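DATA SHEET
Item: assembly model
Revision: 1
Owner: S.N.
Input lines:
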Amino acid sequence: MRTAEQTADGESAPWGEVEPEAARRLLVAAVEAFAERGYHATTTRDIASRAGMSPAALYIHYKTKEELLHRISRIGHDKALEILTAAADGGGTAAERLAEAVRAFVRWHAERHTTARVVQYELDALAPEHRTEIVGLRRRSDAAVRRILGDGVRDGEFDVPDVPGTTLAVLSLCIDVARWFNAAGRRTPEEVGALYADLVLRMVSAQKE
Amino acid sequence: MRTAEQTADGESAPWGEVEPEAARRLLVAAVEAFAERGYHATTTRDIASRAGMSPAALYIHYKTKEELLHRISRIGHDKALEILTAAADGGGTAAERLAEAVRAFVRWHAERHTTARVVQYELDALAPEHRTEIVGLRRRSDAAVRRILGDGVRDGEFDVPDVPGTTLAVLSLCIDVARWFNAAGRRTPEEVGALYADLVLRMVSAQKE
DNA sequence: CCCCGAGCTGAGCAAGCGCTTAGAGCCTTG
DNA sequence: CAAGGCTCTAAGCGCTTGCTCAGCTCGGGG
């Protein structure tokens, strides 16, 4: 039986897997604080007070401030990898799968840009052993996109002279959405996802003649 | 007569305009430290010792640690704006000017990725009045690229349904180079610049039929 | 020869940091 | 109702932070 992990529409809630509730409140508070000020500029007192608790309460649920960051980074990277492998393994032509990968990945970076900012820009603040773990997940994300491009080239759908370089560029374009996306701005996450899927398809498509 | 501002080949040296020499040494040390660990995680003691001085020496040349960041950010943004306006105002077709803008802008982000990382990712650490000044420079950079795209659409060279959105995507793609570029990696700044110029041209080119 | 201002250092201050500890409150179990 | 365990708080420890200040050094002008 699932509880907090699932919402009515069946989509997984952002931090449903974090239990108990006090630990989740602290983690959500940490995501907001890290995204706003950065990991190093955020104090444990700030996190605790956002969660409505005393500074000491944090250490009942997490050993260190870095463990909080690691949990956030791990969950976020799992989600990112899930989105990209789902698109890579999905049905359809390489173009359809690439468009879906970019659309969904960008949508996640825009919709959850608070989380994504921490996930993408605080890697250096992780302890060495945690960083190598996360880097492994990132390599698998890279492989998923590279596979789609490779399939498209093989099937003659795409014209991509430099597959690794283009993979890097596509992922880079999507990731940077977390930096500039503003929830109060004019574009919705869906609109940005659609725009970016179109731009990426243009980057890789074989020219008609 | 120019001195430290110019090298033998006529290209401007990175921090030539910073005088006297001790102030420049401190600034270069700060760029390295900020890029490696981030502004908030860098101590004034670290900056001073990298420059071979005592912590107190920093405050003879700069009022605060934030003033150092502001000077770095200002010089970096001036350079970025100069690169983009030079390309926008240069001769040739819109496609040639866009390719040159991306090539030069990416090359700068790769070659000087230490500086670029501080310039692009430490905006939030600036004091409010310094931030608004820098945001103004960034808007002018945005306008330079938008102008090239607008010219290309007007002349029928480009097919760009969403000019502001595509401007954002092009700049975003270039800026993110500072995050992932590794000087020890396989690609040279020139190679990345050429690859990215090609990818961006594909994004905006009218399809042949 | 002495003085002087500029550049720099050693020592250190007040504030804030991550984290610990002793114990209070309260829910569960028998 | 008593015992035990879990969650949380108030207080604070040891340390580091950005920054200050009295004084040392040293090249150039009277």
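QC remark: The first helix of chain A runs from residue 21 to 37.
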